[in-house]
Design a protein that fits this description.
Order of helices and strands: HHHHHHHEHEEHHHH
Helix content: 55-70%
Structural class: mainly alpha
Largest sheet: 3 strands, mixed
Number of strands: 3
Strand content: 5-15%
Number of domains: 2
Number of helices: 12
Distance between the termini: 41 Å
């Protein structure tokens, strides 16, 4: 059993968590692909008409993953899961109130940081141009914080008291997108920038109010930041970009597709 007190074990634990994050992103991508399948075809259609060997492999992979992660879950109790399952359902009034607090906060942060923002570097612009419109890349401003990190929003304490204990920690996030302003904690890697720009596209198309509503409702439904459809889509497109940056696609088209399919 690993111990954080041993240097060798600490290295192994860090490597383990890096591999777990990678696995989680790949599983999320598979979940999104499965959602696309589920939205278009019924379980009966798939069972009757799917190519047998492909269906068998998909079922085998899903079963193996369920067996492995269920075994991990049985080793201990996740306090966040308990809090989520025991938390009272939020009334529509509380949901509306939450949206009314998040949207102004996001816009306020946008206004605060934009004055110190700078345009994309030429290298980053060249890398991102095949995926994003010139108008968006012209508008976005970048802020790289040095020696400090953005703290959690002031409404977190109340939300946590209401049972939302799995809220994302802002200080641990590589970047935060506030409409057309992206704030980075540390170096600006291409993959991190791509993810942040996906959110900028979502903001631009949906608008601040609608984006906020979809995010808040998605989080209350899933109780997981990375499972909110807006976030899941950003991770999926980020993974697609990282897998082969030479396979160009339009992020704007992908976002419109999800909007038209009602997937956000």
């Amino acid at each position: 059993m690993f111990s954080w007190d041993k240097t060798g074990d600490r290295v192994a634990i860090v490597q383990m968590n890096a591999e777990l994050r990678h696995a989680q992103l790949e599983i999320l991508s598979a979940q999104c692909a499965t959602d696309r399948l589920r939205l278009r075809f019924s379980a009966d259609d798939v069972a009757r008409h799917a190519q047998r060997d492909v269906l068998r492999k998909a079922l085998s992979s899903a079963s193996a993953l369920h067996h492995y992660y269920s075994g991990i879950a049985r080793q201990g109790t996740d306090p966040d899961s308990i809090a989520a399952s025991n938390a009272a359902l939020w009334s529509e009034e509380r949901v509306t109130e939450a949206i009314g607090k998040v949207a102004p906060y996001l816009h306020e942060q946008r206004e605060n940081f934009r004055t110190n923002g700078r345009p994309l570097s030429e290298n980053h612009r060249v890398t991102m141009t095949p995926f994003f419109t010139p108008a968006l890349l012209d508008k976005v401003r970048i802020v790289a914080l040095e020696g400090r990190r953005i703290s959690n929003p002031p409404f977190y304490a109340e939300a946590m008291a209401g049972g939302l204990t799995s809220l994302p920690e802002f200080t641990h996030m590589a970047s935060l997108t506030f409409e057309d302003v992206v704030v980075f904690h540390g170096d600006i890697a291409a993959r991190t920038l791509f993810h942040a720009l996906v959110h900028a596209v979502q903001f631009e198309i949906l608008g601040l109010e609608r984006y906020t509503e979809l995010f808040v409702r998605g989080f209350l439904r899933t109780r997981s930041h990375i499972s909110v459809p807006l976030e899941a889509h950003a991770f999926t497109l980020e993974s697609k970009f990282a897998g082969d940056p030479t396979q160009f696609f339009s992020v704007e088209e992908k976002v419109w597709l999800w909007i038209n399919q009602g997937r956000y």
